[in-house]
Amino acid sequence: MAVSELAIETHGLRKTYRTVRGRTVGVEGLDLAVPQGGVHGFLGPNGSGKTTTIRMLLGLVRPDSGTAAVFGVPVPQRLPEVVARVGAIVESPKFFPAFSARRNLQLLADGIGAPRARVDEVIEQVGLHGRARDRYRTYSLGMKQRLAIAATLLKDPDLLIFDEPTNGLDPAGIHEIRQTMRALGDQGKTVLVSSHILAEVEHVADTVSIVTRGRLVASGRVADLLGDATGATVQVQVAQADVEQATRVLATAGYVVRSDGGRLVVDGAADAAELNRLLGGQGVWASELVVRRPDLESVFLGLTQHDVPGGTSHRGERRLWGGGGAGGRHGDDGVGPVGATDESTDGVRA
Ligand SMILES: Nc1ncnc2c1ncn2[C@@H]1O[C@H](COP(=O)(O)OP(=O)(O)O)[C@@H](O)[C@H]1O
Ligand SMILES: [Mg+2]
């Protein structure tokens, strides 16, 4: 993929922090590729290096080594050339509690030389138009966060970077922010959103990068990652008297069947209708067929289950950009150790 097609690209990005207990690895040779347009989830557990990476992209932290580019422009070296195209919420901006959203945004717009007409546009964009004249202090957390997003939109950036924007929000607030991000992605903006809750971003992101311990463990289109996982499982409920025959019928057809408390579980079989047809053909009637698809959480756990300390290999990394590479699904070997180096304290800093 050509550099110009990527909103963000990093190679071997590394950052260690000096602490009283020695060195802590923040980011350990990270290769990121964020395509232009749409929502990209930057996912990983707490302490996996998401904030450190974002801070490096924004020139707030200097990498030890490696390279990063935003819209093909090397950062931090030439950050001033692209900074106008980037809006970010890393720490919540301060708003005046006694002023309305509109007044707060007008002040910010004046500060950065954005036209005042822009204020009403961004209020509309984040869906705050109904409440724009109310005081900030009367806002819900979700509304406050949407106002923060509105502030980043004032200069009409092409790339928006939100570091855990839903932290501390209730489900309604999370939903609001998700919708706002989705709308921005649909407008052609690139949204990089970090989260330690994979499920929260799964339904809003077009593409994701999943990191753990400062390393990339998987990246690509969400649909590809989920499709590449163990596949859907179908739970089949039949009458107790039919369990044996049903198992035989499905096993004969080549399915891997196990029984789970009176239910049959068929792994890697997405086609429930086919199972239904096979069973019905032998006079066994299913009372229930439930298709369970893997989510990002299970993909992530599958990738990191061999995550034992001591290994430093890059073998744990998988790339799905551009059609998934040569062999499709990797065996266990392809998801090997993504372990810590001996310097790493794995986010358990005191
Ligand atoms: N200023 C700092 N000083 C020392 N260690 C830090 C500092 N910031 C982050 N770290 C460490 O770097 C690692 C990655 O942290 P961070 O980038 O905040 O991860 P995330 O955002 O994914 O939770 C963690 O082990 C964290 O403790
Ligand atoms: Mg963080």
From TrEMBL:
Keyword entries, A-Z = ATP-binding, Hydrolase, Nucleotide-binding, Transport
Matching SUPFAM superfamilies: P-loop containing nucleoside triphosphate hydrolases (SSF52540)
MF terms (GO), sorted A to Z: ATP binding; ATP hydrolysis activity
ABC transporter domain segment(s): 8-238
The transmembrane segments are none
Q: Name one Pfam family in it.
A: ABC_tran
- Any idea of its EC number? 3.6.3.-
Location of the region described as Disordered in the Swiss-Prot/TrEMBL record: 310-350
Top-rank lineage group of the source organism: Bacteria
By sequence similarity, the record places it as follows:
Belongs to the ABC transporter superfamily.
**PANTHER family membership:** ABC TRANSPORTER, ATP-BINDING PROTEIN
Name of the molecule in the record: Daunorubicin/doxorubicin resistance ATP-binding protein DrrA
Q: Could you tell me which species this protein originates from?
A: Isoptericola dokdonensis DS-3
